[in-house]
Amino acid sequence: MSGRKPDRVPVVPFATGYAARLCGLGLKTFYTDMKACVQAQLLARDLHGYDQTPIFGWADWGGWEFGGEIQFPISESHGAPWTARHPVEKVSDLERLKLPDPQSAGWYPLLMEFNRLITGLGFPAKIPAGSVTSVVAGMIGVERLLRWYLKEPEAVRVAYRMATDLILKGAEMVIGHFGTRCSAGYGAPLDANSLISNTIFERFAWPCLEEIHRTLMEKGVNRFTVHLCGDHRGNLEAWAALTFPPRSIISIGSQVGIMEAAAVFGPSHIIAGNVSTTVLAVGSYEDVLLEARRCIEVGKDLAGGFILMPACEMPVLTPPINVHALLVAARKYGTYE
């Protein structure tokens, strides 16, 4: 991130639920007991020797924060929490909705406890900076949102405004407690072109993301990580047009090529990716080694830098030997002179 060359390609396995399983910790406990959450991630990092610092959060958020209901995992097959009841089912529900107070709403109290623990260990606090579409989908529901883009566009704009305000209000709370030495990050699974067109992304999501990016940077936050989850090939130019701090990390899914992303984002940013999660979950050690080597040999010498990372969150049931293969590949094929 400082622009200098490391001894080897860094390995960030995006391991959350995997770390819980490795430590014999139930996923509900992992996502609700922040001390256990941090400890499991540190133990997994120490065991494997990878470079990930503790992370917090899950993809399906926004519904709980706005007064809906959350369901925590009851088995490893669920992987992460999800919204069980969305607070908005019709347009009139949206009109009655109030902006939550992040001091007490949804995952924010857990986030603040997580940040207290990791800043005490010397890590920067985490700021959830999006995706706005994910928060809106948590409020409305994915299927309903996809219909409303066409049938109720003004209601969708209202929801995006409220989601943006929540994200900025939550960020202000984190900065107020921990200062600007924070790391802002988010994934964007519901902005992918497999669900919405680049036109819808640019019309609804992009202006909100730009506002969030600019506001956080104006407050002094200069560490950003964005995971382009899924097929964002139609959105790449729009993502690259967002205001990012230099040396931001752009993580990509399997559908986007490493060189394709690097060509669009240029040498100012770091590309991370994109080892197949399918290979990690069900492939052999040799399969993962080969897949990781492919990624390293494509990305190792990018002018902006490269991080070896899965195409999405490390599957909870990934065999530990396959995670080890990522480190072996980085040491064997990813070292720098």
Characterization of this structure:
This protein has a single domain, classed as TIM Barrel, CATH 3.20.20.210. Helices cover 48% and strands 11% of the residues. It has helices at 17-22, 27-32, 34-48, 91-96, 108-120, 132-140, 142-151, 153-178, 198-218, 236-241, 258-265, 277-282, 285-299, 320-333, and strands at 69-71, 82-85, 125-128, 182-187, 224-228, 249-252, 270-275, 306-310. The strands form 2 sheets. It has a 6-stranded parallel β-sheet. A two-stranded antiparallel sheet has the order 1-2. Strand 4 (182-187), helix 9 (198-218) and strand 5 (224-228) form a beta-alpha-beta unit. The model has no long low-confidence stretch (mean pLDDT 96).
Q: What would the keywords be for this entry?
A:
alpha/beta; 8 strands; two-stranded antiparallel ribbon; 337 residues; TIM Barrel; 11% strand
**Inertia-based shape:** globular
Radius of gyration: 19 Å
Task: Give a short account of the largest sheet.
Answer: 6 strands, parallel
**Strand composition percent:** 5-15%
The poorly predicted ranges are none
Structural class: alpha/beta
The total of helices stands at 14
Count of β-strands: 8
Protein topology:
Layout (H helix, E strand, L loop, with lengths): L16 H6 L4 H6 L1 H15 L20 E3 L10 E4 L5 H6 L11 H13 L4 E4 L3 H9 L1 H10 L1 H26 L3 E6 L10 H21 L5 E5 L7 H6 L7 E4 L5 H8 L4 E6 L1 H6 L2 H15 L6 E5 L9 H14 L4
Parallel strand pairs: 3-4, 4-5, 5-6, 6-7, 7-8
Antiparallel strand pairs: 1-2
